[in-house]
Amino acid sequence: MVEAVRVHKLGGPEVLTYETIGSRPPGPSEIRIRTTAIGVNFIDVYFRTGLYASDTPFIAGKEAAGVVEEVGEGVTDFRVGDHVASATLSGSYATELTAPAAVFVKVPDGISDETAAAMMLKGMTARYLLRRTFKVGPEHTILFHAASGGVGSIATQWAKHLGATVIGTVGSEEKAKLAKKNGVDHTILYRTEDFVQRVAEITGGAKCDVVYDSVGQQTWKGSLDCLKPLGLYVLFGNSSGAVTDFNPSLLAQKGSLFMTRPTLFGYTAKREDLIETANDLFDVVKSGAVEIPIGARFALKDAADAHRALESRGTTGSTILIP
C-alpha cells in the first residue's frame, strides 16, 4: 500500500490528510517510482487553497525524487534502479508514484535525491527566469523579491555567477545575511524599508533592467517603479495574493515597460526543453557555482506543518518532505 497526503476540500493546511491508497502498476509509457524526497512549494499552497483550480479529492504536490521500481511498455529512457526526479508531477506527496515517464529526468551521480527534490521546481524556475525570460549578464542590474526563499536562494547565486548586480528584498536581518552569502550585492529589508526608494538610492536613480517578483499583490506596483524605461517586470508567483487590479496603461506611463507572467510548465512543455533546462541546472550545481540550501525537513505525515512554515515566511531555502 501507498501512503499519501490528499486534499478532500479546499482550505488551510489542516485539509491535508495523511492516508493509505492503493498502488498502481505503470501503464504504457509510464514508470513507477519509490519516492525518497518530496519538494514543498508555494504552488502546492495555491492548489490547496483553490487559487489554482483543481477537482477534489487530489494528492498534493508537484515535485519529487525517487528510484525507479517498474517501467511500463514502451519506456526506453529509464531502467529499474535509476534515480529520477520531476517538477511537473501531479500528486507528488506520496510514498510511491506512477506517472508518465516523460515528466521525469535522470538524476546524475553527485546529486542526492534530497538535493534533487529540493531544486527541481525551484532551480528550473530560476534557470528559465535568468536564461530565457530575460538573459541576465554582467551588464544588468536585477531586483529579486524574496531573495532568501526557495527560488530566490538559487536564482540569486546563479545571477551573481552570471555577473549581474543583484538587489534582493528580504524579511529580516537573518535572511539578509543568508542572501548576502548567496551573492546578493544589496539587501533591502522590505518590512522596514521602502524598497522603491532603496533601489533608486542603490542604483543612483538608474533603476533595474528586470524585476523578478513571486510575491504579487503586495509588491507589483512598487516593482514597476524600480524599472528602467523598457525594463521587464516578471511576475512568477502570488505568495501575498494574486494581482487582480492591474491596468496595462501603467506600463506606458512608467516608461514603455514590458510585463510577463511565465510558468515553468510553459517553458518545459517540450521534452527537449525539459531536458535542456534540467541539465543546465545539474551542471551549475555540480560545478559548485550554485548550492542548494535545504532549510527544513518534515516527515510526509507532517505536510500540514510544512505548509504552515512555508506560509509564515519563516523558512529559508528549500523545504522538503521525507516519506
Give a brief rundown of this model.
This protein has 323 residues and is of the alpha/beta class. It contains ten helices and 16 strands. Helix 2 crosses helix 9.
In words, what does this structure look like?
By secondary structure, this protein is α/β, with parallel strands linked by helices. Helices cover 30% and strands 27% of the residues. The chain has ten helices and 16 strands. Strands 3, 5, 6, 7, 8, 15 and 16 form a seven-stranded mixed sheet that branches. A six-stranded parallel sheet has the order 11-10-9-12-13-14, with helices on both faces. A three-stranded antiparallel sheet has the order 2-1-4, with no helix packed on it.
